[in-house]
Fold this sequence. Notes:
Blueprint: H1 2-39, E1 42-45, E2 51-54, E3 58-60, E4 64-70, E5 73-78, H2 84-90, H3 97-108, H4 121-126, H5 132-156, H6 161-214, E6 246-250, E7 260-264
Antiparallel strand pairs: 1-2, 3-4, 4-5, 6-7
Amino acid sequence: MFKASAVYCALRSKLHVSVSKVAWGLAAVLLALLLPVAASAYTLVMRSGRRVEIPAKFTVTSTAVTYEVAPGIAYTVQLSGVDLAATERINQEPAGSFINRAAKITEQNPPSAPVLPNISAKQIAKQRVVTNEDLEASRRARVASDDADKRQRVQQGLPTREELQRSIEEQDRRLRELALQLEASRTAAQYEALRAEVSVLNRQIGELRVQQSQAPVTYGNSFPNSGFYPYANYYPYAYPLPPFSISIGRLGGNRRFQGSVFSPSFGTSLGNFGRPQQLAPSGFMHLAPSGGRVGTPRMHRPPSGPPRR
């Protein structure tokens, strides 16, 4: 009998434990199903397509939707980012019902008019008007303070305000003069530097001109390139000729001076180059500065016979 009662008690306890576990499991499942429904009673559809679950209790204004995410914590969504038509369709509401919420809230809580202070005529009359007589006391106090300051400065050997102002103006004038002098000296230094550069350039140009004038002239087929050309200085009017083809012609004219000259192929032959005997030195030679020999060197000989006519 004792064993049967013990077995019964054990089975009863096990059955009670199993029933309690099943009950707790069912309660947890029901709670999990009911909490989202209670917490997410309304769905907002954003213009980007995203859906936001909000509590059933929310506030709609003309610009935003405000709902409470936790006790004491509110969240606001701008209406410009909410797709109103899609929100009404997904929540199975008629068109315009979402905006009507804001209208109802506005009707229930109309904006309060600004409260103006109630000022009576007596209070306006009691307002104080400032006159010159009221300001006279302030003026006298200011003058007395200035006089006391002047006396204190004189006693301490300090300059007065007028003297300080004149000193400041004098310092400003000196600073301006100093700035002008510095600018003038800087400009003069730049001018002198430019003059020095110009003088150096002029000297270099003069040296180049002197070198060009003293440079030896090279004549083709006349003398070696040694810088010394005999008889070159006896012909004072030797000018450079352009580099073109030439032909040889006779000097002609005076038999006492014989030789040949070059004549341009495109022009006429050169004229009479004969000179009197006393002007042509012995061994006279014409040199063409552009190249080639104008006259061949020939020693002077006295005429062997009567002059030809």
